[in-house]
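Quick bug: Alkyl hydroperoxide reductase AhpD output formatted oddly.
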Amino acid sequence: MTARTTHLDDSVRGALQSAGAAAKRGLGEPALAELVQVRASQLNHCAFCLDMHLGLARKHGVSERQLDLLDAWEEAGDVFSERERAALALTEAVTVLTDGFVPDAVHEQAAKHFDEPRLAHLIALISVINTWNRLMVSRRIPAGSAKW
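Here's what came back:
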């Protein structure tokens, strides 16, 4: 596959990178941040972001078993903690927005596991990775591309 365009304004790139870094810092859990970003990237079919965040997930200690079962996290039993499951459910709700909003039950479950500042950072992180996914997929940036 050839990229449609690799042009991305440096100020846009920098703003998104800064927003993502701030959200990760505020969440304070690098492994969970990568799980969330991988899951959103799976849902959005973003090979570029999957390639990047799978490597970062491994670097931050996410197990191969979790990565192997991430696409079926709801059926994976105790492979994921209740906290991780709440974050993944929120990731799917924000990414897909099936009914145009995040269901109250999904938000309430996440709120049981994350205090308000961390929940805000988690939602911000999910929003930023979705923006990156859309930028990469719409421009057809291939996995591992040096130009993006």
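Actually, after a second look the formatting is fine. The mean pLDDT is 96. Closing.
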